[in-house]
Amino acid sequence: MESISRTEKSVAEHARRSIDEAREGATELAARGSEAIDNGTARARETISHTTDQAAQYVQAQPLKSLMMAAAAGAAVAVLASAVGRRRHHT
Fold it and tell me: What is the C-alpha separation between 50 and 56, in angstroms, rounded?
């Protein structure tokens, strides 16, 4: 039976340490990425909540103007949808 040389043991140990360091680095990177996503999600929720509150306040303060803006936006969407529909029929 062959015995494992001291050099081979050293190389194997070095490889194990490198793998462990890489695993730790990947775990840390994944944790930082997850934290960044969580922070971004929380900021997005806060922004959406704030914007929704502002919109609700505007609608309460300016109901007629809000209705007219909503009607104009709906008409614009309808015109765009119609144009896209016609374009698909002609191609």
Answer: 10
pLDDT for 2 equals: 57
Joined tokens for residue 71:
């009607």
59 contacts 66 by C-beta, under 8 angstroms: yes
User: Do the Cβ atoms of 19 and 27 come closer than 8 Å?
Assistant: no
pTM of the model: 0.54
Q: Where does residue 66 rank: exposed (0-12), middle (13-18), buried (19+ CB within 10 A)?
A: middle
Question: What contacts 6, CB < 8 A, 6 or more positions away?
Answer: none
- Interhelix angle 63-90/6-61, rounded to 10 degrees, is 120
